[in-house]
Design brief:
Blueprint: E1 2-7, H1 10-22, E2 27-30, E3 47-51, H2 56-68
Antiparallel strand pairs: 1-3, 2-3
Length: 77
Amino acid sequence: MISVYRGSDYFEAQLLTNLIVQDGLQAFLHGAALQGGLGELAAIGHLSIMVNDIDQPSAKEIIMAYERGDFALEEDH
């Protein structure tokens, strides 16, 4: 497996993991169990999303689409 994302925002990392899985890829959020020890651990970059090596390009495309705002919900006016 290879890392396609590193960060420290648990909710964003979980959302990205779910988007990747929803697209039919296998993904694992590594470091999520460390959330409880943040007072004693460095709080930067402790989360990473791992995917199969062959799925790296697809997973990175999903992450880039998220960063572009392609998954944003439109607001009702």
